[in-house]
Design brief:
The complex is a heterotrimer of chains A (139), B (118) and C (246). Chain B has 118 residues and is mainly α. Chain B contains four helices and no strands. Classes of the chains: A mainly alpha (139), B mainly alpha (118), C alpha+beta (246). Chains A and B meet through helix 2, helix 3, helix 4 and helix 5 of A and helix 1, helix 2, helix 3 and helix 4 of B.
């Protein structure tokens, strides 16, 4: 008796349908596209490190090398690359500071600080650091 | 077992790198990548920049920024390839390229910023 | 307002077809009708063979989750008039195997819920006289994560779960946090293995779509990120103070 039940069960078993995830799953929704753009921004973060190290090497090598570096940055292709890089890095910064409050729960005297305050503090720190760095660089 | 112990450390490096990159990179990239080349702002003269770069605190901050930013890239890029292009099968190659690249870049940064006698 | 709206509903009859197809029905466009009311009209008046899940029709049971015009929604809480003049496309929740029409196999999700040991874990065997006391502040610590109705819209929205069915997933992790952060619970260490496994929180790349889809504002994405921080600090503690750790 258990044998017939088992076979009946197998015969009536539904065949579930599983949709394959396409390679470009992330172009289908704006939110997914923004997510992938945010992830790709990391490539431009790495590019900046390379760029920074080239700048430092030029500065350490002397005034001529430094001037040549500055001329090189004016090259249209490099300039375009850096503009694109800047846009992606800004995307990274803005998304990072907006998301950070959700990951952090800061309590003052037993009450949780509102996420908006934490985000504002991050953006404030960003403004301060940028100002300080710019002041140091421009001298 | 190993993955449970390394992954949190890599994530911490990624997070620290994310914060540092977000704070430091936009202004530096704006200045050296856009404003100076377009001559919208006058670039600093060499003597001043050399003095800045030679300063031990600057060197430490820049070194830290480079290392953390590179490890931020390594972690995020790895997952972009895993999820965005579904290349999780190539995880050994991807991990080697990402973290290997980050280590290499960190070594170069260390050499330029910490070891080169100035 | 137009009198009717076309609903394009996914049909899948495994005994007859290899892939889902779409079937169109015209339902009355009533101001107070949700997608679920449209589906009930189809089943009652037009086509009794349509299969779908629903129960409370008021957004608390979590049964009626489906994909409406590409978005994960509770069909009892989504109104036909929002899609006028239509047509509106109703498909089963993404990322789950489709059993029939709009019904998906939720077995994987049910298994994952128990993996995180979603109950109060105490070291002592003796319960107190009366109940465990908890201040309002202690309640606030985990309350948001207790609002989950297990509707699985977060799994439907999560691209990582779509790519990798072994990922523990938003609701399960938020549920674990609901207990980890409960002052009455002493079981964080017991849940750590499941949460910090490679298919636990570390698969998550903070896309954030789960929190966007959640109809109860549980914010599972936040729960996951908070746990990453917890797990990372536990790892550091164990590294630097091996005997003082777990």
């Amino acid at each position: 008796m258990s044998d017939t039940t088992a076979t009946t069960r197998v015969r009536n078993q539904p065949r579930p349908y599983r949709r394959r995830v396409p390679i470009l799953w992330w172009v289908r929704r704006r939110s997914y596209l923004l997510f992938v753009a945010r992830e790709v921004s990391s490539v431009f973060v790495a590019w900046f490190v390379v760029f920074l190290l080239l700048l430092i090497r030029a500065v350490l090598a002397g005034d001529d090398a430094y001037q040549r570096f500055l001329d090189w940055t004016a090259n249209p292709f490099l300039l375009a690359l850096n503009v694109v890089a800047l846009l992606f890095v800004l995307l990274h910064a803005v998304t990072w500071f907006n998301l950070a409050p959700q990951a952090m729960v800061v309590k003052v005297r037993g009450r949780r600080l509102p996420p908006l305050l934490i985000a504002a503090a991050h953006f404030g720190a960003w403004a301060v650091v940028s100002a300080v760095v710019a002041w140091i660089v421009l001298g | 077992m190993p993955k449970q112990r390394i992954e949190p450390i890599l994530w911490l490096l990624f997070s620290a790198g994310g914060i540092v990159a977000a704070l430091m990179i936009p202004v530096l990239l704006l200045l050296f990548g856009v404003l100076f080349p377009l001559e919208l702002v006058a670039p600093p003269d060499h003597a001043h920049l050399l003095a800045v770069v030679r300063n031990p605190l600057t060197r430490l901050v820049l070194f830290g920024t480079c290392v953390l930013a590179l490890f931020h890239w390594a972690h995020r890029f790895k997952y972009t390839l895993y999820d965005g292009l579904q290349l999780k099968g190539l995880h050994t190659a991807i991990n080697t390229f990402s973290y290997g690249g980050a280590l290499l870049g960190s070594a170069v940064a260390g050499y330029l910023l910490l070891l080169l006698p100035v | 307002m137009a009198k009717s709206i076309t609903m394009q509903v996914a049909r899948y009859r495994p005994d007859r077809e290899a892939e889902p197809t779409m079937q169109s029905y015209d339902v009355p466009l009533r101001k107070d009708w949700a997608i679920l009311d449209g589906l009930n009209h189809i089943k009652d008046e037009l086509d009794g063979t349509l299969s779908y899940r629903w129960s409370c029709r008021m957004g608390i049971c979590g049964s009626c989750g489906m994909t409406v015009n590409g978005e994960p929604k509770l069909t009892c809480a989504t109104f036909l008039t929002d899609y006028a003049p239509g047509p509106v496309r109703v498909e089963p929740m993404r990322n789950f195997p489709v059993v029939r029409d709009l019904v998906v196999d939720i077995g994987d999700f049910m298994a994952k819920l128990s993996v995180v040991q979603p109950w109060i874990i105490r070291k002592d065997e003796e319960p107190p006289d009366g109940e465990y006391l908890q201040t309002p502040a202690e309640l606030e610590d985990y309350k948001q994560f207790s609002m989950c109705i297990n509707c699985m819209l977060c799994y439907s929205a999560c691209p990582i779960y779509g790519l990798n069915e072994h990922f523990l997933g938003p609701a399960a992790i938020a549920l674990a946090q609901r207990y980890n952060l409960d002052s009455r619970d002493q079981g964080s260490a017991d849940r750590m293995d499941a949460l910090s496994a490679s298919t636990g929180v570390w698969d998550c790349t903070y896309v954030g779509e789960c929190s966007t889809a959640c109809p109860k504002n549980v914010d599972p994405a936040g729960a996951i990120q908070r746990y990453k921080l917890t797990a990372a600090s536990e790892t550091l503690k164990a590294f630097f103070m091996p005997r003082g750790g777990r």
